[in-house]
# Entry
Amino acid sequence: MNRLPMVRVGALAAAAALTLTTLTSPAAASQDDGYTFAVIGDIPYGDPAIARFPANIAQINADPAVRWVDHLGDIKNGSSVCSDDYFQRIKTDFDQFQDPLVYAIGDNEWTDCHRPNNGPYNPLERLAKVRQVFFPKPGRTLGQRAVRVDSQADWGLPENVRWDAAGVGFAAVHIVGSNNSLAPWTGNTAPTPEQAAEVLSRTAGAIAHIHDTFADARKAHRRAVVLLTQADMFDPTVTNPSFADYYAFQPILAALVREAGAFKGQVYLFNGDSHVFHVDQPLAAGSSWLAFYGITQPTTNLTRITVDGSSNANDYLRVTVNHRGPQALTWTKVPFTAV
# Structure
Protein backbone atom coordinates (compact mmCIF):
# COMPACT_ATOMS: atom_id res chain seq x y z
CA MET A 1 0.00 0.00 0.00
CA ASN A 2 1.39 3.37 -0.98
CA ARG A 3 1.45 5.58 2.14
CA LEU A 4 2.96 8.67 0.53
CA PRO A 5 -0.30 10.66 0.77
CA MET A 6 -0.55 10.07 4.53
CA VAL A 7 3.04 11.16 4.99
CA ARG A 8 2.26 14.35 3.10
CA VAL A 9 -0.81 14.95 5.26
CA GLY A 10 1.36 14.75 8.35
CA ALA A 11 3.78 17.26 6.91
CA LEU A 12 0.99 19.61 5.94
CA ALA A 13 -0.63 19.32 9.35
CA ALA A 14 2.69 20.17 10.93
CA ALA A 15 2.91 23.26 8.76
CA ALA A 16 -0.59 24.20 9.83
CA ALA A 17 0.48 24.11 13.46
CA LEU A 18 3.09 26.82 12.96
CA THR A 19 2.80 29.99 15.00
CA LEU A 20 1.32 32.41 12.51
CA THR A 21 1.63 36.16 12.37
CA THR A 22 -1.28 38.58 12.11
CA LEU A 23 -2.04 40.75 9.13
CA THR A 24 -2.88 44.42 9.29
CA SER A 25 -6.40 45.60 10.05
CA PRO A 26 -8.94 45.22 7.22
CA ALA A 27 -9.52 48.16 4.95
CA ALA A 28 -12.61 50.17 5.72
CA ALA A 29 -15.59 49.50 3.45
CA SER A 30 -19.20 50.54 3.09
CA GLN A 31 -21.87 49.05 5.34
CA ASP A 32 -24.86 49.84 3.12
CA ASP A 33 -27.65 47.38 2.46
CA GLY A 34 -27.88 45.68 -0.93
CA TYR A 35 -24.15 45.53 -1.62
CA THR A 36 -23.73 43.50 -4.82
CA PHE A 37 -20.70 41.88 -6.44
CA ALA A 38 -20.04 39.63 -9.44
CA VAL A 39 -18.24 36.28 -9.41
CA ILE A 40 -16.72 34.53 -12.44
CA GLY A 41 -14.20 31.75 -12.86
CA ASP A 42 -12.58 29.35 -15.31
CA ILE A 43 -12.81 31.98 -18.04
CA PRO A 44 -11.73 32.52 -20.79
CA TYR A 45 -11.15 28.98 -22.13
CA GLY A 46 -10.06 28.76 -25.78
CA ASP A 47 -9.85 31.23 -28.65
CA PRO A 48 -13.59 32.00 -29.06
CA ALA A 49 -13.97 32.67 -25.33
CA ILE A 50 -10.79 34.77 -25.30
CA ALA A 51 -12.21 36.88 -28.11
CA ARG A 52 -15.51 37.32 -26.22
CA PHE A 53 -13.91 38.12 -22.87
CA PRO A 54 -13.72 41.92 -23.38
CA ALA A 55 -17.44 41.94 -24.20
CA ASN A 56 -18.15 39.90 -21.06
CA ILE A 57 -16.20 42.44 -19.03
CA ALA A 58 -18.10 45.32 -20.65
CA GLN A 59 -21.40 43.67 -19.71
CA ILE A 60 -20.37 43.33 -16.06
CA ASN A 61 -19.19 46.95 -16.13
CA ALA A 62 -22.62 47.99 -17.42
CA ASP A 63 -24.46 46.23 -14.57
CA PRO A 64 -25.45 49.15 -12.29
CA ALA A 65 -25.81 46.89 -9.25
CA VAL A 66 -22.30 45.42 -9.37
CA ARG A 67 -19.70 47.22 -7.27
CA TRP A 68 -16.94 44.60 -7.05
CA VAL A 69 -15.76 41.64 -9.16
CA ASP A 70 -14.11 38.38 -8.09
CA HIS A 71 -12.39 36.04 -10.58
CA LEU A 72 -11.89 32.56 -9.12
CA GLY A 73 -8.89 31.64 -11.23
CA ASP A 74 -8.11 29.54 -14.29
CA ILE A 75 -7.64 32.30 -16.85
CA LYS A 76 -6.91 29.69 -19.55
CA ASN A 77 -7.77 26.08 -20.27
CA GLY A 78 -5.54 23.21 -19.21
CA SER A 79 -4.18 22.39 -22.68
CA SER A 80 -2.90 25.79 -23.86
CA VAL A 81 0.48 27.48 -23.50
CA CYS A 82 1.29 29.37 -20.28
CA SER A 83 3.13 32.14 -22.09
CA ASP A 84 4.16 35.60 -20.93
CA ASP A 85 2.23 37.08 -23.84
CA TYR A 86 -0.96 35.33 -22.80
CA PHE A 87 -0.64 36.48 -19.19
CA GLN A 88 -0.17 40.05 -20.37
CA ARG A 89 -3.19 39.78 -22.68
CA ILE A 90 -5.43 38.73 -19.79
CA LYS A 91 -3.95 41.39 -17.52
CA THR A 92 -4.84 43.97 -20.18
CA ASP A 93 -8.39 42.60 -20.18
CA PHE A 94 -8.51 42.71 -16.38
CA ASP A 95 -7.50 46.36 -16.53
CA GLN A 96 -10.79 47.05 -18.30
CA PHE A 97 -12.87 46.18 -15.23
CA GLN A 98 -14.21 49.45 -13.91
CA ASP A 99 -14.89 48.13 -10.41
CA PRO A 100 -12.29 46.69 -8.03
CA LEU A 101 -11.25 43.20 -9.16
CA VAL A 102 -9.86 40.44 -6.96
CA TYR A 103 -8.22 37.54 -8.78
CA ALA A 104 -7.79 34.18 -7.03
CA ILE A 105 -5.03 32.30 -8.88
CA GLY A 106 -5.99 29.00 -10.53
CA ASP A 107 -4.02 25.86 -11.35
CA ASN A 108 -4.18 26.17 -15.14
CA GLU A 109 -1.97 29.26 -15.14
CA TRP A 110 0.87 27.69 -13.14
CA THR A 111 0.38 24.31 -11.45
CA ASP A 112 -0.36 22.46 -14.68
CA CYS A 113 2.12 24.31 -16.90
CA HIS A 114 4.53 21.33 -16.72
CA ARG A 115 2.34 19.60 -19.30
CA PRO A 116 3.97 19.33 -22.75
CA ASN A 117 1.06 21.14 -24.42
CA ASN A 118 1.38 23.99 -21.90
CA GLY A 119 4.96 24.86 -22.81
CA PRO A 120 6.23 22.98 -20.92
CA TYR A 121 7.34 25.23 -18.06
CA ASN A 122 8.56 24.88 -14.52
CA PRO A 123 5.34 25.59 -12.55
CA LEU A 124 7.16 27.51 -9.84
CA GLU A 125 8.66 29.85 -12.43
CA ARG A 126 5.19 30.38 -13.89
CA LEU A 127 3.77 31.15 -10.45
CA ALA A 128 6.42 33.81 -9.97
CA LYS A 129 5.48 35.30 -13.35
CA VAL A 130 1.76 35.30 -12.50
CA ARG A 131 2.51 37.20 -9.30
CA GLN A 132 4.70 39.67 -11.17
CA VAL A 133 2.10 40.37 -13.87
CA PHE A 134 -1.14 40.34 -11.86
CA PHE A 135 -0.02 41.68 -8.48
CA PRO A 136 2.22 44.64 -9.32
CA LYS A 137 0.94 46.62 -6.32
CA PRO A 138 0.46 44.23 -3.38
CA GLY A 139 -2.28 45.41 -1.07
CA ARG A 140 -4.40 46.87 -3.88
CA THR A 141 -7.02 45.27 -6.08
CA LEU A 142 -6.93 45.21 -9.84
CA GLY A 143 -9.45 47.20 -11.89
CA GLN A 144 -9.79 50.86 -12.75
CA ARG A 145 -11.18 51.72 -9.31
CA ALA A 146 -8.51 49.84 -7.40
CA VAL A 147 -8.87 49.96 -3.63
CA ARG A 148 -6.74 48.92 -0.70
CA VAL A 149 -7.04 45.39 0.73
CA ASP A 150 -5.05 43.50 3.34
CA SER A 151 -2.48 41.24 1.72
CA GLN A 152 -0.13 38.44 2.70
CA ALA A 153 2.61 40.01 0.60
CA ASP A 154 4.95 39.76 3.60
CA TRP A 155 4.53 35.99 3.35
CA GLY A 156 5.31 36.09 -0.36
CA LEU A 157 1.59 35.54 -1.05
CA PRO A 158 0.29 38.84 -2.47
CA GLU A 159 -2.69 37.01 -3.97
CA ASN A 160 -4.10 36.18 -0.51
CA VAL A 161 -6.16 39.26 0.29
CA ARG A 162 -9.03 40.13 2.60
CA TRP A 163 -11.43 43.01 3.01
CA ASP A 164 -14.76 43.97 4.61
CA ALA A 165 -17.90 45.22 2.89
CA ALA A 166 -21.49 45.65 4.04
CA GLY A 167 -20.91 43.85 7.32
CA VAL A 168 -19.30 40.79 5.72
CA GLY A 169 -15.68 39.63 5.88
CA PHE A 170 -14.20 38.54 2.54
CA ALA A 171 -11.00 36.66 1.72
CA ALA A 172 -9.45 35.30 -1.47
CA VAL A 173 -7.32 32.25 -0.66
CA HIS A 174 -4.81 30.63 -3.01
CA ILE A 175 -5.95 26.99 -3.06
CA VAL A 176 -5.78 25.22 -6.41
CA GLY A 177 -6.83 22.01 -8.08
CA SER A 178 -4.38 19.23 -8.98
CA ASN A 179 -4.35 18.32 -5.26
CA ASN A 180 -3.38 21.89 -4.32
CA SER A 181 -0.35 21.46 -6.62
CA LEU A 182 0.90 18.17 -5.18
CA ALA A 183 -0.04 16.20 -8.31
CA PRO A 184 3.32 15.00 -9.75
CA TRP A 185 4.76 16.97 -12.63
CA THR A 186 5.42 15.39 -16.01
CA GLY A 187 8.12 12.72 -15.76
CA ASN A 188 7.75 12.31 -11.97
CA THR A 189 5.85 9.83 -9.84
CA ALA A 190 5.86 11.98 -6.69
CA PRO A 191 6.10 15.69 -5.86
CA THR A 192 9.60 17.14 -6.13
CA PRO A 193 11.17 18.62 -2.96
CA GLU A 194 10.74 22.14 -4.37
CA GLN A 195 7.12 21.42 -5.24
CA ALA A 196 6.32 20.07 -1.77
CA ALA A 197 8.07 23.00 -0.07
CA GLU A 198 5.96 25.50 -2.00
CA VAL A 199 2.75 23.69 -1.06
CA LEU A 200 3.72 23.53 2.63
CA SER A 201 4.50 27.23 2.73
CA ARG A 202 1.38 28.28 0.83
CA THR A 203 -0.82 26.00 2.94
CA ALA A 204 0.50 27.54 6.15
CA GLY A 205 -0.26 30.96 4.67
CA ALA A 206 -3.77 29.90 3.65
CA ILE A 207 -4.53 28.63 7.15
CA ALA A 208 -3.25 31.84 8.71
CA HIS A 209 -5.31 33.86 6.25
CA ILE A 210 -8.48 31.93 7.08
CA HIS A 211 -7.83 32.30 10.80
CA ASP A 212 -7.31 36.06 10.55
CA THR A 213 -10.41 36.51 8.41
CA PHE A 214 -12.61 34.79 10.99
CA ALA A 215 -10.88 36.50 13.92
CA ASP A 216 -11.67 39.89 12.40
CA ALA A 217 -15.24 38.83 11.63
CA ARG A 218 -15.84 37.70 15.21
CA LYS A 219 -14.32 40.87 16.62
CA ALA A 220 -16.45 43.10 14.37
CA HIS A 221 -19.59 40.93 14.79
CA ARG A 222 -19.86 40.30 11.06
CA ARG A 223 -22.98 38.56 9.83
CA ALA A 224 -21.05 36.37 7.39
CA VAL A 225 -17.66 35.34 6.07
CA VAL A 226 -17.06 34.77 2.35
CA LEU A 227 -14.07 32.77 1.11
CA LEU A 228 -13.14 32.72 -2.58
CA THR A 229 -10.82 30.14 -4.09
CA GLN A 230 -10.20 28.18 -7.27
CA ALA A 231 -10.10 24.58 -6.07
CA ASP A 232 -13.25 22.50 -5.77
CA MET A 233 -12.40 20.44 -2.71
CA PHE A 234 -15.79 18.65 -2.92
CA ASP A 235 -16.13 18.02 -6.65
CA PRO A 236 -19.59 16.50 -7.21
CA THR A 237 -18.66 15.48 -10.75
CA VAL A 238 -16.20 12.87 -9.39
CA THR A 239 -18.22 9.78 -8.51
CA ASN A 240 -15.48 7.87 -6.69
CA PRO A 241 -12.88 10.35 -5.41
CA SER A 242 -9.50 9.00 -4.29
CA PHE A 243 -7.92 10.46 -1.16
CA ALA A 244 -4.59 10.37 -3.02
CA ASP A 245 -5.95 13.15 -5.24
CA TYR A 246 -7.31 15.32 -2.40
CA TYR A 247 -5.13 14.85 0.68
CA ALA A 248 -3.40 18.22 0.39
CA PHE A 249 -6.71 19.94 1.16
CA GLN A 250 -7.16 18.15 4.50
CA PRO A 251 -5.35 20.63 6.82
CA ILE A 252 -7.03 23.59 5.14
CA LEU A 253 -10.46 22.06 5.64
CA ALA A 254 -9.62 21.20 9.24
CA ALA A 255 -8.85 24.88 9.81
CA LEU A 256 -12.03 25.95 8.02
CA VAL A 257 -14.18 23.61 10.12
CA ARG A 258 -12.53 24.86 13.32
CA GLU A 259 -13.05 28.52 12.42
CA ALA A 260 -16.59 28.10 11.09
CA GLY A 261 -17.54 26.19 14.22
CA ALA A 262 -16.45 29.12 16.39
CA PHE A 263 -18.30 31.67 14.23
CA LYS A 264 -21.94 32.49 14.94
CA GLY A 265 -22.68 33.82 11.47
CA GLN A 266 -22.97 32.26 8.04
CA VAL A 267 -20.01 31.07 5.97
CA TYR A 268 -19.94 30.98 2.17
CA LEU A 269 -17.26 29.29 0.07
CA PHE A 270 -17.17 30.26 -3.62
CA ASN A 271 -15.06 28.11 -5.94
CA GLY A 272 -14.60 27.29 -9.60
CA ASP A 273 -12.63 24.31 -10.91
CA SER A 274 -15.45 21.84 -11.61
CA HIS A 275 -17.18 24.22 -14.08
CA VAL A 276 -20.84 23.46 -13.25
CA PHE A 277 -22.99 25.73 -11.07
CA HIS A 278 -23.69 23.94 -7.82
CA VAL A 279 -24.83 24.88 -4.31
CA ASP A 280 -24.54 22.53 -1.35
CA GLN A 281 -23.40 22.10 2.26
CA PRO A 282 -20.51 19.66 1.81
CA LEU A 283 -19.56 19.48 5.50
CA ALA A 284 -23.06 19.18 6.98
CA ALA A 285 -24.15 16.08 8.88
CA GLY A 286 -24.60 13.12 6.56
CA SER A 287 -22.14 14.32 3.92
CA SER A 288 -19.71 11.66 2.67
CA TRP A 289 -16.97 14.31 2.61
CA LEU A 290 -16.78 14.30 6.42
CA ALA A 291 -15.44 10.74 6.58
CA PHE A 292 -13.42 11.25 3.40
CA TYR A 293 -11.42 14.06 5.00
CA GLY A 294 -11.48 12.61 8.52
CA ILE A 295 -13.64 15.42 9.90
CA THR A 296 -15.60 14.45 13.00
CA GLN A 297 -17.55 17.66 13.63
CA PRO A 298 -20.16 18.61 10.99
CA THR A 299 -20.34 22.26 9.94
CA THR A 300 -23.89 23.49 9.69
CA ASN A 301 -23.24 27.12 8.74
CA LEU A 302 -21.13 26.55 5.60
CA THR A 303 -22.64 26.89 2.13
CA ARG A 304 -20.50 26.20 -0.94
CA ILE A 305 -21.23 27.76 -4.34
CA THR A 306 -19.49 26.60 -7.54
CA VAL A 307 -19.69 29.00 -10.48
CA ASP A 308 -20.10 28.03 -14.11
CA GLY A 309 -16.86 27.84 -16.08
CA SER A 310 -15.08 26.42 -19.12
CA SER A 311 -17.69 25.58 -21.78
CA ASN A 312 -20.38 26.55 -19.25
CA ALA A 313 -18.94 30.05 -18.72
CA ASN A 314 -22.00 31.64 -20.26
CA ASP A 315 -22.97 33.77 -17.27
CA TYR A 316 -21.71 35.62 -14.23
CA LEU A 317 -23.04 35.22 -10.71
CA ARG A 318 -24.55 38.41 -9.29
CA VAL A 319 -24.36 38.15 -5.50
CA THR A 320 -26.09 40.51 -3.07
CA VAL A 321 -25.38 41.01 0.63
CA ASN A 322 -28.62 41.26 2.64
CA HIS A 323 -28.91 42.67 6.14
CA ARG A 324 -32.44 41.30 6.47
CA GLY A 325 -33.91 37.88 5.90
CA PRO A 326 -32.59 34.42 6.72
CA GLN A 327 -29.70 34.41 4.22
CA ALA A 328 -26.83 36.88 4.33
CA LEU A 329 -26.21 36.33 0.62
CA THR A 330 -28.52 35.73 -2.31
CA TRP A 331 -27.49 35.27 -5.91
CA THR A 332 -28.67 34.93 -9.46
CA LYS A 333 -27.00 33.88 -12.69
CA VAL A 334 -26.87 36.60 -15.33
CA PRO A 335 -26.41 35.25 -18.88
CA PHE A 336 -23.68 36.80 -20.99
CA THR A 337 -25.07 38.39 -24.12
CA ALA A 338 -21.87 37.61 -26.05
CA VAL A 339 -21.64 33.79 -26.20
